[in-house]
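I have been asked to look over a protein record a colleague put together. What it holds is a sequence and that sequence's fold in token form. Please read both lines and tell me whether the tokens look consistent with the sequence. I do not need a full report, just your reasoning and any doubts. This is what I was given:
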Amino acid sequence: MPTQDNVRIAPPQGKLGVLIPGMGAVTSTFVAGVEAVKAGWAQPVGSLTQMATIRLGKRTEGRSPRIKDFVPLAGLDDLVIGGWDIFEDDIYEAALKAGVLDKSDLEKVKAPLAAIKPMKAVFDPEYVRRLHGSHVKEGGSKMDKAQALMQDIRDFQKNTGVSRMIMIWCGSTEVHHNPTEVHQTLEAFERGLAQNDPGIAPSQIYAYAALKMGVPHANGAPNLTCDVPAFSELARERQLPICGKDFKTGQTMMKTILSPGLKARMLGLRGWFSTNILGNRDGEVLDDPSAFKTKEETKLSVLEYILQPELYPQLYKDYYHMVRINYYPPRGDAKEGWDNIDIFGWMGYPMQIKIDFLCRDSILAAPIVLDLVLFLDLAQRAGMKGIQEWLSFYFKAPMTAPGLYPEHDIFIQLMKLKNTLRWMKGEDLITHLGLEYYD
């Protein structure tokens, strides 16, 4: 990583291609929202890059520009969307079927949405067992499929004239699998592609193709994908930023907001029971226990890292933590998450907290997609490579450098994100240390 004295951020010249594997509910909501904001009849609510400010210098200086005015981000008019899906629906048709947005709103942006048609996807039913699409690449080895994706990327760049690209996975959750020997080195991974190693998931074929083509990658699902040594090696070799995994949207977002508060006040925890009902395609996929296992690991890990029971055994040792997701088709994308939290306070007396969060997964995920696209592009133009821990703010299971535990506290994550932006521009980092008390 460059030092603070020599960070040079190349300007965002030309168009920015956004390549998305999985063009369903999240992607269609993201694209529709971008078009609505560009047209002036919607606000980019939930997006730090578009709405948040960043304090610079001392509080007395009164400098708090918007992030988009502070660092050189690509503009919304510069985004060109493309991607892959196992269904042939264009983005407008996909949005209608997803049912996230009202048809009256979709009609206002129908033309640009209908113009985006997916390329044939790389798909393996062993990794997503509840979906059966026909719009897929057939035949050949996994290396052949990677080469086909690379050709798709070349064709997209040629046909659109974009000057640079970002890939962000918005596809379904894959079944749980652990790293094997094939994931340990780039050489082993490429050999595994040629030999059709069953341990290589479709999402990893996409990520490999992206990085080989010089395209930074973000993983919005809990899939293993880039979280293996082979991809860290490839990202360093190609000098590319990567980040992931699993967009932090509904119930887990609430956990990362509330649990830091409990720990800050040194309140104890006996148990945290979480359950959800969800009826969209994500819910259908997660109805498969093997896919849910992948999601469960990212959702369960949050409390362990925030509460640090090894440091506070009197408060957090042996608490009970359960997560459930139930597929309930009538609810569609309007997920409902219930949390029952048993805590204790002074002299061990019990208390309870109840949360009923009626959220919309894709509405919460869409601004995350936008921010990650713009921030990853910024990181690439600033010469930053490898795992971007400063983007942990957006993920349930943030990737970290080997040997480091992930930071899950959303407030620490936000401070790290903003301090990274300050560092990139040569501004003083904010520490909240009031030295004036000692003058």
